[in-house]
Design a protein that fits this description.
This protein is an alpha/beta fold. It is built from four helices and six strands, in the order αββαβαβαββ. Helices cover 29% and strands 28% of the residues.
Length: 171
């Protein structure tokens, strides 16, 4: 059924035909945060503590709410609701933090920094963009409302370098 016909039913406040299938729609919200890290044992410059201006694109998929009485009628998810999930579980936690692998000697450096008032996060993985995007996917999936699934994440470390996570690749 075309979008025009669907709009016609909505305009006249008529129920959609029984065989009508609502389209699945992808919704994307972008976030920015500053995070430092160091890659223990790495053979390049990134073994040193340094930081990035990360850009995170979060894409979820679902069907728009069809209940005309629902306050979010026509939405897959309110952008504000998605923003709260990602801010609480990722941005507010990682912004202006320094991230170290908790299974390496960087733990000693982390404790020294903490004792001087620095915000440090210890994670059980090497804090590469690849591993961070996996961590972020798991955090977000746990918080999404029923009927909404995480489709993909894109974590940009620089303008030309990024890691992507797709649900279809991880089923």
């Amino acid at each position: 059924m075309s979008r025009r016909i669907c709009g016609f039913f909505y305009a006249l406040n008529l129920p959609l035909p029984k065989d009508f299938v609502m389209s699945r729609i992808r919704i994307t919200k972008q976030f920015n945060f500053e995070t430092g890290h160091a890659l223990y044992g790495y053979d390049g410059k990134c073994r040193n503590v340094h930081g990035h201006s990360y850009k995170l694109s979060v894409t979820v998929i679902g069907t728009p709410i069809e209940d005309r009485n629902h306050v979010k009628f026509g939405m897959v998810i309110d952008f504000t609701d998605l923003k709260h999930i990602v801010r609480e579980d990722i941005v507010d936690q990682f912004d202006h933090a320094t991230v170290f692998n908790s299974t390496t000697p960087h733990v000693e450096l982390a404790e020294q920094l903490r004792s001087r008032g620095h915000y440090v996060i210890l994670v059980p993985y090497q804090p590469t963009s690849e591993n961070m995007v996996i961590d972020f996917a798991e955090r977000i999936k746990k918080r999404l409302p029923e009927g909404i699934t995480l489709h993909s994440l894109k974590l940009q470390e620089t303008e030309t370098s990024f890691a992507e996570w797709y649900a279809a690749d991880n089923e």
